[in-house]
Design a protein that fits this description.
Distance between the termini: 62 Å
Radius of gyration: 19 Å
Helix content: 10-25%
CATH topology: Rossmann fold
CATH class: Alpha Beta
Shape: globular
Length: about 250
């Protein structure tokens, strides 16, 4: 085991961390404004993920400091791949995996490049990424089209109404009242900053999250936590990343 003082020094050197990870008693983000994050959130929906992932493969998109990737490996996943576009986060994740003794592969890669992986994974994690993307629906389309084999664990920050407005299959051009209803699917655009973060681009309400998942070819099978969904590929769904996605 690495000496705690060395762990503390290296963790400080790699900081600041967004994931608070316990590295043999050393907390990587002990002053996190969300508390013991993301563990405090993970505890609310961890039962939604199979406790035994033996033999399965896992892709963690936007892995950040590696918290979820490490948890998946601890559940016995045969292979875990974490990708992130930020090399700083990847350096943190590699260090956290090394200290915790988990054999995890990490690559610098954008969600828009997942087709280059050339394989499907039994479980794909897409946690806390959607609202950081300029093209969120494209990302969901690509994930469905290229990498999800069985399960998608999805999470997004949400704002706006929690209710979901029942919608007809088609709406007349002259009908506009639906758009003013709180439960109509809305994707709020952030022109400047939200929470002092310039990468917060789009923030959906609940109806929008669920509509986007369905439209990208996913069937929602569970909603274990306010922002978290467990999904499977829907029969005949997907293909939305290829234009035109709709039409006769």
């Amino acid at each position: 085991m690495i000496d705690p003082d060395r762990i503390r020094a290296r963790a400080r050197q790699l900081g600041p961390w967004f994931h608070n990870i316990d590295l043999h008693g050393v907390q990587t983000a002990p002053e996190h404004y969300l508390g013991d994050y993301p563990r405090v959130k993970w505890q609310r929906f961890s039962d939604a993920v199979p406790a035994d992932l033996s033999g399965r493969t896992v892709l963690d998109i936007g892995c950040n400091g590696g918290f979820y990737a490490i948890e998946m490996k601890r559940r016995g996943a045969r292979r875990v791949l974490g990708i992130d576009s930020d090399e700083t986060y990847l350096a943190q994740a590699r260090f956290a995996a090394e200290v915790t003794g988990q054999d995890i592969e990490f690559r610098q890669m954008s969600v828009y490049d997942v087709g280059r992986l050339g394989e499907r994974f039994d479980l794909v994690l897409f946690m806390g990424v959607l609202y950081h993307l300029r093209h969120p629906l494209l990302a969901l389309d690509l994930i469905r089209e290229h990498v999800v084999g069985d399960l998608l664990l999805f999470q997004s920050m949400r704002r706006g109404a929690a209710e979901v407005e029942p919608l007809p299959a088609n709406v007349d051009f002259w009908r506009t009242d639906l758009f003013d209803r709180p439960g109509y699917p809305k994707l709020h655009f952030v022109e400047h900053r939200y929470a002092d973060d310039p990468t917060n681009w789009w923030i959906p309400n609940r109806a929008c999250v669920e509509a986007m998942l369905r439209d990208s070819g996913f069937r929602i099978e569970g909603h274990p936590e306010d922002e978290v969904y467990l999904c499977r590929p829907a029969e005949g769904g997907g293909g939305g990343a290829v234009y035109p996605a709709k039409g006769p």
